[in-house]
Predict the 3D structure of the following.
Amino acid sequence: MRPWIFAHRGASARHPENTLEAFRAAIRLGADGIELDVQLTSDGEVVVIHDPWLDRTTDGTGLVQNRTFAELRRLSAGSWFDPRFSKSKIPSLREVLALVMPTRMQVILELKNFFVPQPELEKRVVELLRIYEMEQRAIISSFNFNSLLHIKELAPAVRTGLLYIGHLHEPWDIARQYQTEQLHVPKEEITPSLIRQAHRHRLEVIGWTINSSQTILRMRKLGIDGIITNYPRRARKVLHPKLDSG
Ligand code: G3P
Ligand code: CA
């Protein structure tokens, strides 16, 4: 049922972002999908973490890509959020895909390769999607449009989303150039005309990051295809009040 509800970095309003705890909560709360951020470690593991640096969301410091997976696993990825989550770790993409695989959820994987180059990230992500048989349920997004084109070369069946910030002139033309099926649009840019024109160009529109009840309802009225939100429970209550009432 549209709009799909994607839990942004998991259910990140009440759990530390991009941790298994946040993704388990998203499943429990009835989200249609999760959104997560991926990067490579120095020894080639795909890990789920937002910033290129460890400092904000872990008790470590420095660049993620300068550390091995074993080194990253010694860090807490939850104590910054609340001491209750001090045992939370940076997950590997393998762990998250194994968690989601038995559900029917979709996964938006944002490649964090805009500011810091991540050679071979596309190849490693596609390999993992194949191992976990998640190609049909995955959507790959990135601010790095060349990287999206590379995904299409490696795995034409995997959907991609043109992720942008600020104003993009005629984004459907750029989507065609980079062969994406979706536009991932910042909420300030979502208008009736943008959605109408995107649909006319056979593009789905996913809005980010949509948190207030009022905006969630407005998005549905506009006919958006999906919303990315830190509050999947709120979104579900607002969009499907009857589903949870019994
Ligand atoms: O997918 C949209 C959104 O996740 C992009 O911004 O900074 O939360 O990764 P950010
Ligand atoms: Ca993201």
